[in-house]
Specification:
Largest interface: A-B, 62 and 53 residues
Shape of chain B: elongated
Oligomer: heterotrimer
Number of strands of chain C: 20
Strand order of the largest sheet of chain C: 6-7-8-3-9-10
Largest sheet of chain C: 6 strands, mixed
Chains: A mainly alpha (318), B mainly alpha (274), C alpha/beta (539)
Low-confidence stretches of chain C: none
Order of helices and strands of chain B: HHHHHHHHHH
Mean pLDDT of chain B: 85
Strand content of chain B: under 5%
Shape of chain C: globular
Number of helices of chain B: 10
Distance between the termini of chain C: 40 Å
Low-confidence stretches of chain B: 266-274
Chain lengths: 318, 274, 539
């Protein structure tokens, strides 16, 4: 048990170091390179005095490292600065949108993960069969399709032709179950297809890898049917790689929501971030970027820790 | 030729499409019946099969000509970016594999940090900071897919570096450069070519997505993603101007995927975007 | 009395339909209840394929395409998947080569041992566990009450192999298949495992098929022996006749490779080439006393003369391969001195000169990984010629041809990549590459272990010839005592990183021996079928 505990602590420590490097990369790209944020905000016609005043107000005259430290300290204490575009606190802007994005991602994950698991396991069990080959072509195509193609096809079919769903996601204040369904159906479906295709492929590979192990042959030779050999013997050993696959895919979801939120005009963090790019609203952009990167790191951390816990060699301290 | 003959049907289809798109990317601008920027018709969003093969766009330009013209961005930027990402990743991985454990650890840790910035997020930050341009898009896509390439190349290189033939070369007193280039590199080249193909697909998707957001290739130039974006208002009437470029992108990426998959005999597929 | 097992014209094919190759050609045999049949052959002889067909199983890519495999009243070759699942584990059971791989790493041993009993519903869980504990006792496993609660990685290889026998016996099957069950074990462990197997098979009157490449092992346990080569039956007879009066030339060839010769080497010593003294080596940080944190070798000294072969014997974990790495400079020794041709040799390879590297060459066990698959044979042999001797162009080409001739390979091999070569050919190229450097000493690490006996014998013969022709020193590292005994002028026995015994070959042939050496020597099975029964159990 002690060994596991140490490994997990070490793993968390590594994640924190990684997060620090990431924050430095994000900050220095966004801040130290050309252009003067103050000049940018006020436009070319601004007086030098006004620019200087603004520089002072935003602490832009401090040395870079100090600014980085201040920014990082602010992030840790929940103060991500003030938006340049509309002068509201960044944390306020994000928190208003965060739950929406999490809901979108959550719905997608809840639907896509079990679906992909079943797909992947079935494909592995019948590897080489027609089902497997058909699934291979299908998933291979789906992982290569841009989200906006899927989204436009959905809109064309369900909103334009059939007129079943609105082409934009709008959740009214007094939303009922039906409203939620109407708002979420197309964004979630778009994300699900890309995501499950990829997860199914990785699950299949993980299970197949275990199926080629001698202990699975042994199980078959002990008289266990194929389904039992897969579910009772191979699957427990594939948990580590599968969780890893799920985490990696979900982290892909972080990028996928960017497109989907924009297309369906969905009020989430990702569309906020795209707006921040267009407005060159750096404080908001940096905070959003850190949010996504942290989300990614947490997912990978969960995957690694599950792999550690699922390993009997570590679990029994051997 | 033998390779192509032994491929399944899906692989042959993929190879055919790849050849087709590369042809379009090279000769497209010469084949175009109209100039890409010329407004040829008064009617916007004309359907397929009228006076213009693929109809007209939102201001009445010839979609077919714009498609022929825009393909080169969608093919050549990703091609160059993937080549840069793969070769840089492979070189760093080789260096890492023949260096001591400490250097290796530092490089690996830094790459792990880079890899945990999702490529779309990285692109957004970069574009906000520098403004979008073709050289910048090339840099962004090359940099954001390099760590993934490094990771795969390093795993392969470390495997090979532990083989007895490398140990033999080491006991002979060979230099690190020789070990990396002559002993290790030839044995990881083949899988890295497959990785190159996958990375090409990732870059096509990322670049198209950025253009779709209006942050990629900037007017007056337009890649296939930009064509989708500028014509999105035609979606309500099902205009070919918006559907055709989107499908074109999909056929490029799917074709490359099918081709690589059949070349590798359906080996595992790397995580999308990483 | 009708036969219990009857295999009739069994044919197995491999590869895609249409371009399949036959890997088992019309093999027939029958066994009475309680008899033990050994399937003997080298790699690729089809012995495991035949054994698996007794379970109605063919590995992925293979198919049973003809003949009948009758066990009792069932034809295993003609049953459906569901029928087979009902029979496997209950009526016919399997013991795999590597227990470490055949146990599921994530489930407790007891769950896996009783699984087939529960699946087939032959007994309740508590009955099955009681039965399992009984079997653990019969197989003389330590702490039989609790060993089942452990995970596979928590018990030793020899124990795991016996636990697998318990797993196979849980339903008291009529027929049990042993697939090279002791090949992965050290000799001293093998004896106890063999004894345990023999006892339980007898106690349950089980019919058994024992697959092995080792005639001496088989002699201890089998009533009948079937000799296979390339999927064809060469000879089948009682153990007694096979051992004493074999008809087939191939059988006799196999026998002669095992027969313990009384020859020993005692070459006239030349000048000292390598002289190492008081070596300490290992991994991890160096402690205050100057010793490595995880010591592997302690206080090892050895002297090798020109034209002489020094053998190093040890079981897994003895540190014998580590010792070779220390001499080669791959793992720098923490303390101790090394002299090469009477000059001090730096411990780490980075500090050695080109000439020092040139004089020490290594040959590895597995020729598949020792040759770069991306290079042509000519380049593999040519590189040391260019690197050490500056040879290029036609001079280099000519020397490559000479080297190939030296190891008795055709000169046109130079233009081929080594992927398609046989194991024996690869090992010859491996050897030729070491010779290309014109070294003073060659370190051979288990060079024959991955080869079939007949091929290995040829390589050893070549090694002897080369030595007398080129007058080089050889350090020969092996776990195979009889090979070392017949080949080496001096022999060092290693156990857990320490020298147990270090004597001349002449002395080694006569004794006296240290207790561990004695144990090692007496654990090697002989062709005498009474050898196993006459040995006292160690436990």
């Amino acid at each position: 048990m002690k060994v596991i505990f140490q490994l997990i602590i070490k793993r968390i420590g590594l994640s924190i170091i990684t997060l620090l490097i990431v924050s430095a990369v994000v900050f220095f790209i966004a801040n130290l390179l050309p252009g003067d944020a103050a000049q940018e905000m006020l436009g070319q016609s601004a007086t030098p005095e006004a620019v200087a005043e603004l520089r002072e107000a935003y602490g832009l005259n401090d040395p870079p490292l100090l600014r980085y430290a201040k920014w990082l300290g602010g992030l840790v204490s929940g103060d991500a600065g003030t938006s340049l575009a509309n002068a509201r606190p960044v944390s306020e802007l994000i928190s208003a949108r965060l739950s929406q994005s999490l809901m979108l991602a959550g719905f997608t994950a809840v639907l896509a993960v079990p679906f992909a698991m079943v797909l992947g396991i079935v494909a592995a069990m019948y590897s080489g069969s027609r089902i497997d080959k058909a699934m291979n072509i299908f998933t291979l195509s789906m992982v290569a399709v841009p989200e906006f193609l899927l989204a436009t096809i959905f809109v064309l079919v369900f909103a334009v032709e059939l007129n079943w769903l609105p082409s934009l996601s709008y959740i009214p204040a007094d939303a009922g179950v039906n409203d939620y369904f109407r708002a979420f159906a197309m964004p979630v479906a778009t994300l699900c297809i890309v995501l499950s295709a990829q997860m199914a492929r990785m699950t299949r590979a993980a299970v197949l890898e275990q199926l080629s192990q001698p202990y699975v042959e042994m199980a078959l030779l002990k008289g266990s049917p194929l389904s039992r050999a897969v579910l009772r013997h191979a699957l427990p050993n594939a948990v580590g790689p599968i969780v890893n696959a799920v985490a990696l895919s979900l982290s892909y979801l972080l990028g996928g929501v960017v497109i989907v939120e924009v297309i369906f005009n969905y009020p989430g963090v990702a569309s906020l971030m795209v707006d921040a790019v267009t407005n060159r609203d750096m404080p908001l952009l940096q905070a959003c970027a850190m949010l996504f990167c942290t989300g990614y790191l947490i997912l990978v951390l969960i995957a690694d820790i599950s792999a550690i816990v699922a390993n009997p060699k570590l679990r029994t301290g051997g | 030729m033998k390779v192509i003959k032994s491929m399944p049907l899906s692989g042959k289809l993929g190879a055919l499409l790849v050849v087709f798109w590369v042809f379009i990317a090279i000769f497209g601008p010469w084949l175009a019946p109209h100039s890409a920027s010329e407004i040829v018709a008064y009617d916007v969003f004309e359907p397929i099969g009228g006076d213009y093969v693929l109809g007209t766009d939102y201001i009445g330009r010839d979609v077919f000509s714009r498609l022929l013209d825009g393909t080169r961005f969608t093919i050549f930027i990703p091609l160059l970016a993937a080549a840069l990402a793969c070769s840089a990743g492979t070189l760093i991985a080789l260096f890492s594999a023949v260096s001591g454990p400490r250097t290796d650890e530092v490089i690996a840790r830094f790459m792990d940090a880079l890899i945990s910035i999702p490529s779309k997020i990285f692109s957004l930050v970069m574009i906000a900071a520098f403004g979008s341009s073709v050289p910048l898009l090339l840099t962004i896509t090359a940099v954001s897919y390099m760590p993934g390439s490094f990771r795969i190349a390093r795993a392969l290189a470390v495997n090979v570096a532990n083989m007895d033939f490398v140990t033999v070369a080491r006991t002979r007193g060979e230099s690190r450069l020789y070990l990396a280039v002559k002993e290790i590199l030839p044995n990881i080249l083949h899988p890295m070519l497959a990785d190159f193909g996958l990375r090409f697909v990732f870059v096509v998707l990322l670049l198209s997505s950025l253009s779709f957001l209006g942050l990629g290739v900037q007017p007056p130039e337009a890649d296939l993603g930009s064509l989708v974006r500028e014509n999105i208002s035609g979606l309500a009437e099902g205009a070919p101007a918006v559907i055709i470029p989107a499908i074109a992108i999909a056929t490029i990426t799917i074709a490359v995927n099918l081709l690589i998959d059949s070349l590798r005999g359906g080996a595992t597929y790397a995580a999308r975007g990483k | 009395m009708t036969a219990h097992v009857n295999v009739d014209k069994l044919r197995v094919e491999a590869g895609p339909v249409g371009q399949a190759t036959t890997i088992v050609h019309d093999v027939s045999f029958s066994l009475q209840r309680g008899e033990v049949l050994a399937l003997i052959g080298e790699s690729g002889s089809g012995k495991t394929t035949i054994a698996l067909s007794l379970l109605g199983y063919a590995r992925p890519g293979c198919r049973i395409t003809g003949g009948a495999v009758n066990v009792g009243d069932d034809n295993m070759a003609a049953m459906s998947a569901a029928q087979l699942a009902g029979v496997r584990g209950r009526k016919v059971a399997y013991v795999a080569q590597s227990a470490a791989a055949a146990f599921n790493p994530s489930r407790r041993i007891m769950d896996q041992v009783v699984e087939s009993a529960l699946m087939h519903g032959v007994m309740s869980r508590s009955q099955a566990e009681a039965k399992a504990i009984d079997l653990f006792k019969q197989l003389s496993l330590p702490s039989p009450q609790t060993i089942g609660r452990r995970y596979p990685h928590e018990v030793s290889g020899g124990q795991l192999q016996r636990l697998m026998a318990a797993m196979a016996l849980i339903c008291e099957p009529e027929l049990i298949i042993f697939d090279e069950p002791t090949t992965a074990l050290d000799v001293t462990t093998q004896v106890d495992v063999l004894k345990a197997f023999k006892a339980v098979v007898k106690a349950y009157n089980t019919t058994a098929v024992y697959v092995s490449h080792d005639l001496a092992v088989v002699a201890q346990i089998a009533d009948q022996i079937l000799v296979l080569q390339s999927g064809k039956m060469m000879e089948k007879n009682t153990t007694d006749i096979i051992l004493n009066d074999a008809e087939h030339a191939y059988t006799r060839q196999l026998l002669s490779a095992v027969q313990d010769s009384d020859t020993f080497q005692d070459n006239v010593p030349g000048e000292v080439v390598i002289d190492v003294a008081n070596i300490e080596a290992g991994y991890g940080k160096i402690t205050k006393e100057g010793k490595p944190g995880i010591p592997i070798l302690s206080d090892i000294s050895m002297r090798v003369r020109r034209g002489q072969t020094v053998g190093i014997i040890g079981e897994s974990g003895s540190g014998k391969s580590t010792f070779a790495r220390v001499i080669a400079g791959l793992l720098p020794a923490a303390t101790g001195t090394m002299l090469l041709n009477n000059k001090e040799l730096p411990p780490a390879i980075v500090n050695r000169s080109k000439a020092e590297c040139q004089h020490i060459q290594m040959v590895f066990q597995n020729a598949d990984t020792a040759l770069n698959p991306a290079h042509k044979v000519g380049d593999i042999l040519g590189r040391p010629l260019t690197f050490f001797h500056g040879l290029t162009g036609t001079a280099r080409k000519q020397r490559v041809a000479e080297l190939l001739e030296l190891v008795k390979l055709p000169a046109d091999l130079a233009d081929r990549k080594c992927g398609a070569l046989s194991g024996g050919q690869k090992q010859r190229i491996n050897l030729a590459r070491a010779l290309a450097a014109e070294p003073s000493v060659i370190l051979c690490d288990e060079v024959t272990s991955a080869l079939d006996t007949v091929v290995a014998a040829a390589i050893l013969e070549l090694l002897g010839e080369l030595q007398s022709k080129l007058n080089i020193a050889i350090v020969f590292i092996s776990h195979d005592i009889s090979t070392v005994k017949s080949l080496c002028d001096e022999i060092m026995v290693l156990y857990k990183g320490k020298t147990v015994q270090y004597t001349s070959g002449k002395q080694f042939a006569r004794g006296p021996y240290e207790p561990y050496t004695e144990l090692l020597l007496s654990s090697v099975p002989t062709l005498d079928p009474t050898w196993l029964d006459s040995r006292q159990s160690r436990a």
